[in-house]
UniProtKB/TrEMBL annotation:
Gene: ispD
Classification via SUPFAM superfamilies: Nucleotide-diphospho-sugar transferases
Organism: Alteromonas sediminis
Site (Positions MEP for the nucleophilic attack): 154, 210
Protein name (database record): 2-C-methyl-D-erythritol 4-phosphate cytidylyltransferase
Family: Belongs to the IspD/TarI cytidylyltransferase family. IspD subfamily.
Amino acid sequence: MNSRHIVAVVPAAGIGTRMQSDIPKQYLTLHGKTILEHTLERLSSHSLVDSVVVAIHPDDRLFFNLPISRHVKISTVTGGSERSESVSNALQALPHDSWALVHDAARPCVCQKDITRLIDTEDLSPTIGAILASPVSDTLKRGSDGYVSDTVDRSQLWRALTPQFFHAHTLLNAYRQAHLNHLTVTDEASAMELAGHKVKLINGHAGNIKITHPDDLSLAAFYLQQESD
Ligand SMILES: Nc1ccn([C@@H]2O[C@H](COP(=O)(O)OP(=O)(O)OP(=O)(O)O)[C@@H](O)[C@H]2O)c(=O)n1
Ligand SMILES: C[C@](O)(CO)[C@H](O)COP(=O)(O)O
């Protein structure tokens, strides 16, 4: 039984440059709902999630038109110029001793079973967290000037997914330390690793894709359909 106070932190303040769309990708529609609505519905409906804090762009005029923006569990903070800043802004708003379940708005296909397995990971502590991840199954090449320079041993490589689950105050301090050291981190685990903490790898559903490029939309639509079947 989980006695922790768990807050889902949703970085949703990006502008989706790589999607090349007229609006930020989290507001594109799949199966009649925005990507952000799909994501927030899955997090806010999870029985182990006590509340949700969404980091939205300062100029975002779309979020509060969504009915889910009025969900009793959901509140917002202003995002920053980088994902790490958006997450840090949300972490500062959390009650002391919360646990942060950080999940990209751009990952609407996350399944509830994976969220439960991540939260229920054994032996977590303020200095030991856990992330969903997927083992690499392709042969990986390092490239230089358009040619293969070498083949990377994939046997111990994983793709980091989200959610990533950490003690909120420890994670905030880790992000602050990375920022003070001018280190760019692209996920919560990187900040925690740099701070010398441990991160458990929890095998997650490969369909939990991050919608980044236009081609990802049809794949996400497929995986969303699988969940609703
Ligand atoms: N300053 C930022 C940048 C990103 N994000 C969020 O972090 C998640 C993962 O980032 P990414 O996929 O890179 O989204 P964008 O930054 O919007 O995409 P791009 O890099 O193509 O602009 C997304 O849900 C995005 O909204 C955020 O909250 N604040
Ligand atoms: C957090 C993340 O989704 C883990 O794979 C990834 O690092 C986000 O990267 P992005 O460039 O901000 O999309």
